[in-house]
Design goal:
Elements: H1 6-11, H2 17-104, H3 111-117, H4 134-144, H5 172-176, H6 181-190
Helix pairs in contact: 2-3, 2-4
């Protein structure tokens, strides 16, 4: 590129020195501005490898940070799933053990108390989902919790004293007609069936 000089301007037909000075001054300002811009771009270009290195470092750190967050969230979720699974297994074992307690004859009002102090975690199931060694466990429950087993007793027919009036039962109306209180009480006791007892 040709330099802008007075000689060049004179060759172009511009001979007035004032005009030449103005052209040279304007040209110098424009070129100085371009040089300044060029120097800024050059400085930025020289910084580019360092900036790229910082960017790569940040990408790597953010990638590591995101991966660490993901790993933590995954671990927390897996722990939560395992905890929920264990709660479900424990609930199933408690339900099965409750059935064993009922089958062993434990009083319904005592089942929850027995369940609270029993170790249901050791309860095992076979492939069919039934309790392993069920009969043996029921026998152990009967031995260990014998005091809580409901004992049913059969009651025979209630036999009252035979009527004192020669074996003949009195009706309710006949008994209520008795004036003497002690006699009436005695007749009621001897004829409870007349009063629906």
């Amino acid at each position: 590129m040709a330099r802008l000089t007075r000689k060049f301007l004179t060759a172009l037909g511009i001979e007035d020195e004032n005009v030449q000075d103005q052209i040279i001054s304007a040209h110098t300002e424009a070129t100085d501005a371009l040089k300044e811009q060029r120097d800024g771009y050059k400085a930025d270009a020289e910084k580019l490898p360092e900036v790229q290195k910082e960017l790569d470092t940040l990408k790597e750190q953010s990638g590591d940070k995101i991966k660490a967050q993901y790993d933590k969230l995954k671990k927390d979720f897996d722990n939560y799933k395992e905890e929920q699974h264990q709660k479900e297994v424990t609930a199933n074992k408690k339900s099965a053990y409750k059935g064993l307690l009922k089958e062993a004859g434990i009083s319904a009002s005592r089942i929850d108390a027995v369940l609270k102090v029993s170790d249901v975690d050791g309860l095992e199931f076979n492939e069919d989902g039934e309790i392993k060694d069920k009969d043996k466990m029921i026998e152990n429950i009967k031995k260990e919790w014998a005091d809580f087993i409901v004992k049913s007793t059969e009651k025979g027919a209630q036999v009252g004293n035979p009527p004192a009036n020669g074996g003949k039962a009195l009706s309710r109306e006949e008994i209520l007609k008795i004036k003497d209180t002690s006699e009436r009480q005695k007749a009621i006791a001897e004829n409870l069936s007349a009063f629906g007892r």
